[in-house]
Amino acid sequence: MIRDVIQDSHILLNMSPKDWQESIRLVAQPLLKEKYITQNYIEAMVNAVKQYGAYIVVGKGVALAHARPEEGVQKLGLSVMTLKDPIAFGNQENDPVKLIFCLAAIDSKAHLDIMRSIVHIINENWKINEIVAQKNLMDFKKTLEKIEENSKND
């Protein structure tokens, strides 16, 4: 579950980055600051989008920034950011993005539960809208918990 991995300090709400590159760098800052990832990992995430396109936009309005573990992951972590104004990443089907996750996976298996939880969120637009609408940490966490509990029953 997302709430089991994410720390309060890894939740950024109602942010205003100027473009997709800045949004990736911004959502990654809590993980960098707490040494979950290195600066190299952030650059690898940005470069991957430049090289392969906006494949990290995994659902309507949702991006999952990540890179390969060997590019600078030091421990499993997740951060999340909601955007005040949605940003285009270059994915015609799912732009603009209003919710961004940054995943630091230490290997190909450790993050599967987190991925499952993210999929449960992005499969219904109302869940994304409800999460993005939260303006303070307490409400964000309550909303995420409620959505994750509902997903267990799906």
From TrEMBL:
<keyword id="KW-0597">Phosphoprotein</keyword>
<keyword id="KW-0813">Transport</keyword>
<dbReference type="GO" id="GO:0016301">
    <property type="term" value="F:kinase activity"/>
</dbReference>
<keyword id="KW-0963">Cytoplasm</keyword>
<keyword id="KW-0598">Phosphotransferase system</keyword>
<feature type="domain" description="PTS EIIA type-2">
    <location>
        <begin position="4"/>
        <end position="147"/>
    </location>
</feature>
<keyword id="KW-0418">Kinase</keyword>
<protein>
    <recommendedName>
        <fullName>Ascorbate-specific PTS system EIIA component</fullName>
    </recommendedName>
</protein>
<dbReference type="InterPro" id="IPR002178">
    <property type="entry name" value="PTS_EIIA_type-2_dom"/>
</dbReference>
<dbReference type="InterPro" id="IPR016152">
    <property type="entry name" value="PTrfase/Anion_transptr"/>
</dbReference>
<comment type="function">
    <text>The phosphoenolpyruvate-dependent sugar phosphotransferase system (sugar PTS), a major carbohydrate active transport system, catalyzes the phosphorylation of incoming sugar substrates concomitantly with their translocation across the cell membrane. The enzyme II UlaABC PTS system is involved in ascorbate transport.</text>
</comment>
<dbReference type="Pfam" id="PF00359">
    <property type="entry name" value="PTS_EIIA_2"/>
</dbReference>
<dbReference type="GO" id="GO:0009401">
    <property type="term" value="P:phosphoenolpyruvate-dependent sugar phosphotransferase system"/>
</dbReference>
<keyword id="KW-0808">Transferase</keyword>
<dbReference type="GO" id="GO:0005737">
    <property type="term" value="C:cytoplasm"/>
</dbReference>
<dbReference type="InterPro" id="IPR051351">
    <property type="entry name" value="Ascorbate-PTS_EIIA_comp"/>
</dbReference>
